[in-house]
Amino acid sequence: MMKVVVVGGVAGGATAASQLRRLEPDCDITIFEKGRDISFANCGLPYHIGGEVAERGQLIAATPETFGKKDVRVHTDHEVIGVHPGGHRLTVKNLETGEVFEESYDRLILSPGGRPRIIPALEGVTAVHVLHTLEDMDRIMKFIDDEDIKEAVVVGSGFIGMEVTENLRMRDIDVTLVHRNENLYGHVEAEMVAPLLQTLEDQGVNLKLNAEISRVEDGCAHLTNNEKIPAPMIIQGIGLTPNTGFLRGSGVRVTDDGLIPVNEYGQTNVDNVYALGDVMETKYLHVPDVAANIKLAWPAHRMAYTIANHIHGAYDIKFEGLLGTNIMRFFDHEIGSIGLEQKDVRGIDHFVIDHQQNFKAGYMEGASKIRIKMYVGHDGTILRAALISKSGVDKRLDTLAAHIRTGGKAQDLINIEVAYSPPFSSPKSFLNMVGYKAVEEMKKRGLY
Amino acid sequence: MMKVVVVGGVAGGATAASQLRRLEPDCDITIFEKGRDISFANCGLPYHIGGEVAERGQLIAATPETFGKKDVRVHTDHEVIGVHPGGHRLTVKNLETGEVFEESYDRLILSPGGRPRIIPALEGVTAVHVLHTLEDMDRIMKFIDDEDIKEAVVVGSGFIGMEVTENLRMRDIDVTLVHRNENLYGHVEAEMVAPLLQTLEDQGVNLKLNAEISRVEDGCAHLTNNEKIPAPMIIQGIGLTPNTGFLRGSGVRVTDDGLIPVNEYGQTNVDNVYALGDVMETKYLHVPDVAANIKLAWPAHRMAYTIANHIHGAYDIKFEGLLGTNIMRFFDHEIGSIGLEQKDVRGIDHFVIDHQQNFKAGYMEGASKIRIKMYVGHDGTILRAALISKSGVDKRLDTLAAHIRTGGKAQDLINIEVAYSPPFSSPKSFLNMVGYKAVEEMKKRGLY
After folding, report:
1. Complex ipTM above 0.90?
2. Which cofactors does it use (chains A, B) (predicted)?
């Protein structure tokens, strides 16, 4: 009987195990998870703090018990500390007892994820929290209650920093948001985030750009700009460090950034060893020579399905590469992007379409602008697009994703038929207009 | 100098004239419109009755004066009553003076639209209205005020009937909705409209299915089921009759249904004569052997652009055919479809995927179901899909449109990357799940 071991039991690992069980009713599946919980909805954690997710239990998709019923063994508080592909063996540490033991595998699926980065000045400070696991969320909510928190400092303005800011405000907690450079929400172009800055102001958030915390003393955070602010609670969201140290010496290739390169089946460089989730390095679907590491749920779920099928022997299911589609709601705004990161676009010849119009018929109550900044390669490839609006950003991103995936170019956007009715769009629809502008620009440049 | 005459100055005709002027600064352009107004937003008319369009003026995109500034001559209240392609001439009647005259053209663009059908029992009855033009809207709003209307009868449950029902309710006018068969809102499958029926009930709308008005007497409508209901105002929305009678004997081909077949450039069978808008018969993009007549704004605008380019000599711009993408908001629901009509699907071998899941992460406040019924041909062609939900129907329709347009099949839906965050979707996203179900079904049937 084939024995499959999964390292990591959150989004990627748990989904891979479920998919595999569905395809292979008989194989032996074991999950080792170093944390307390498995299979929780980490994207939903900020929203339970703010109350938009009413019940904590709704965040838990599966437990070791529910997996047990599917005959998948789950060991939580078990950290895999070594991999020995030659002997098809792992070294595992039971974090509760300290016991170290060996385990064999026929197929190994690596989904160890990352751990939140913590700046040195904040290490070991009681008031400092991160929000990466259900345990972290529980700890934050208990801390808010126990310490009767009325104000907090949020460090970092990525997905976590912004979502935590929104949800603390939902609890009427005053927030100081500290971000190390001048670009709030760096996933999207600095020149597009004015509505987020305005919202922060409207929400009474104390924004500190170009600042970092240098130390915490007597309940106050000292910033690098010499400001001192009350900080009874600090939540840090400044990115993840991949949990791939345990692969040292294993022969599994890990990049300088700690990521694991995989191919279209999720295979690493080592036979029978797969990787997925936040640690995987794959490629962009539309610009395959650029490597992609997208720490989001969709790529993890898609690769889980791909790996399960490959182990099952269904080689027709391939991971096509990613578009990096992402979105965030921040109070009454939606902001997101698709395609390469800003830094990657700089290396490729391109022109930019910057367009805005109403997200629905302009004569309808509540109409307001949607804006796109789209980067187009000289053959019409949509390298990247960033969007912001009060509504309809998700629709345009998903439409662009479908369009780009099947080879659609910027000049083809004129042809996308839209579901039009005044509450939803315009007959001269947003992406069509972007396409018309692209055609004009390409003609002007002799590219069309 | 090339002389272009446009018959009809609403969506299709006005857009064609504008686009042509943009491309051809020097040609001679004349529009004949038999109605009082040109270039108004007919899709927005119901929403001004209900107040969601606050200002009447917002519904008017252009006037004869604004066209005059672009050197486009507009003659309203002028009906074209004959076309003589041999001599490149038209016969035009000035409806104000009764004068009949001839006009020459080098290129002729036909966008005469349709006129609302009226059942014989209602012809000439003062209380009876239709809602097709700005004049109609003005008449309805004046009638409501003058007669102090508190209750009304709406006949027909298509786009107009449903939108008028919603907007009369917004004004607190009691509505009886009369529909001739048992299928409310026939654009979508009868088995999917339960939420609309529930909404009608919640809104206190008096629904009469399988009924027609046989006569109106003493302010009451007598129904074919022998019921008698108060009817101080009646608004009829039971479809359009194409205004193509004036083409009789012209040599321009008109189908038995009164439609004008056109090719990918909008050309009719007669040289230098184009047609667009509600009267054009084109084909479905994804099933080209099925003729399409889609009386919606997007096709009209797209064909206007195509025709203008063709007259300009840009033959690379083609009308690819239609997908029939349509959507309606009805109070807090969204409902729409894409692809062939139900009747057309019956003639093609297919299977059906009927799927529902939450339109956003299920643990988020306000999550509820989105349902799709998708008809798949045996090669995976998405023949038709109908959707209903409280949110996100437009997003899925536009995404499907982009996907189908570039050749995407049902089994490829698993690969569409989505903009995921809990307020917007799920990592196991709706269209992906539909794709997984399609793959399973195709495997089961030996089609994959």
Report:
1. yes
2. FAD
